[in-house]
Amino acid sequence: MEDESNGRGRFEARRTLRLSAEENERLARQADAASISVSEYIRRLCFGGRPITSRTDNQTIRELRRLGGLLKHNFETVRETGGQQALPKMEAALEAVQQAIERLSRE
After folding, report:
1. Distance CA 94, CA 64 (A)
2. What is the domain partition of the chain in residue ranges?
3. What is the DSSP string of 32-60?
4. Exposure check for the chain: N or C terminus, fewer CB within 10 A?
5. How much is the pTM?
């Protein structure tokens, strides 16, 4: 077992990377959005690993899918009750939900 108390453990090498202030801020924001450290973020970018996704985006996508499912469920109810005038607005809302999911999935 390696002694982690002296700073040596899983990672034994250190590299220095020079960044502009803007690059450093962007890197920190992206790592924060993914809820991981900057070091872990860089390792994943360089060496693959698990995909880097923002937890907020994943939660938002799940919620959008839930809302889309509820909206689709309501289509049948609206059709049965004769609320045909509401269908175009509901279809537009469902399309907006689908576009938002696709946009978040690409980012």
Report:
1. 10
2. 18-52, 55-106
3. HHTTS-HHHHHHHHHH--S----HHHHHH
4. N
5. 0.44
